[in-house]
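Example 3.2
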Amino acid sequence: MIYYVATVPELPGCHTQAKSLDDLMNRIKGAILLYLETEGCSIVGCFVGCRLSKLKPVEAKVAIKALGRMGFLPVRQRGSHLIMKHPNGRSTVIPVHIGEELGRGS
C-alpha cells in the first residue's frame, strides 16, 4: 500500500500522511493550521511538499509510545491530531486516524 507524506520544512514536526493526494492536501492544511495555532503564529505563507519513502508504516500508538520513551509528552489533541512536546522545546503533531498506519516518512 502506498502512503503519501507531506512535510513543512519551515515548521519542525509538522507532517501528515494519507492514502490519496486529495486527502493529503486536506490533512496538511489542517496540520499547518494546528501547528501555527499551537505556536501562537498567524498564517503568512507555507510550502507543502510530498515524497514517497520505503520506510515501513507503523500505527500511531507505536509512534506515540516511542516518542514517549524519548521524553515527548502529549500536550493536547485537536480532532485526529495529537500534539506532543519535549521538555527541550521540540514539538511534533501525530495524526491519529482510526484504522490507518502512519505513512512512510512521517
